[in-house]
Model the fold of this input.
Amino acid sequence: MAEKIVITSGKGGVGKTTVTANLGMQLAWKGRRVLLCDTDFGLNNIDVVTGVEKKIVYDIVDVVEGRCRAKQAVVQHDTCKNLYVLASNRSRPDKYISPQMVRMVLDSLSGLYDYILIDSPAGIDAGFHRAAASAESALVVTTPHISSLRDADKVISVLRSYRMKKTGLVINMVRGDMVVEREILAPREIGEILRLPLVAIIPENDGVFLNRPRGEAEKAFRMLAETVAGGNPGVLDATRKYSGLFGGLRRSLRKNL
Ligand SMILES: Nc1ncnc2c1ncn2[C@@H]1O[C@H](COP(=O)(O)OP(=O)(O)O)[C@@H](O)[C@H]1O
Ligand SMILES: [Mg+2]
Done:
């Protein structure tokens, strides 16, 4: 049976879909069978981020409404063969699908995968509950910015009622140079404020924006996949590049960009 993990945040645009896609891909490269399920009916884009959008024929609403079987709605990634995507409702964002319905669909697919990663919409209303109700673990994504932290805090308190087996914190878009200069909170401080175990630090990186993480960002996603799979690689030190003499040079170069 698959371990079902919801990826949530509170605030939009902080990287839930990016984390879902890249964690899924890294787990798949490690040989795990992974299904990405999009439960964001409004800003649904996991199919686009993973590049499978042209292959999608059915979505989760078609499954719930009996137009196809769950297996028929799942598409396989072209190059990463262990990665599969179940798209969310593409045409009717206001359609109501209950958390129980999503759970039934995912339970019926659970035996086929090692992990089901559920990409949640922003906020803590119906869409959030639709995503969280099927999961046994959660990853809360935040950036180091205050507005994102406040929304993450709200989500964490709502998540408590779900009694997840594990909840971990992913801090995304971390600028190591700004941490060194104390312009933003250090990831460790954020973990303490939100009182969640820190499972990943993902640096801000142009490659992520282009859906092709490279270098440090790719390494950070690989470390997260290892943590999720039960290893203990720790988290990326995003400040290392910016410490010492050469780090100081890199900091001033980045500032003057
Ligand atoms: N670590 C990162 N570095 C740079 N850009 C990022 C990073 N993570 C996400 N992004 C970009 O930020 C935008 C929002 O990310 P997305 O994953 O869609 O957020 P959400 O799903 O939480 O709304 C996207 O354009 C994405 O490419
Ligand atoms: Mg998203």
About this structure: The chain has one domain: 3-255.
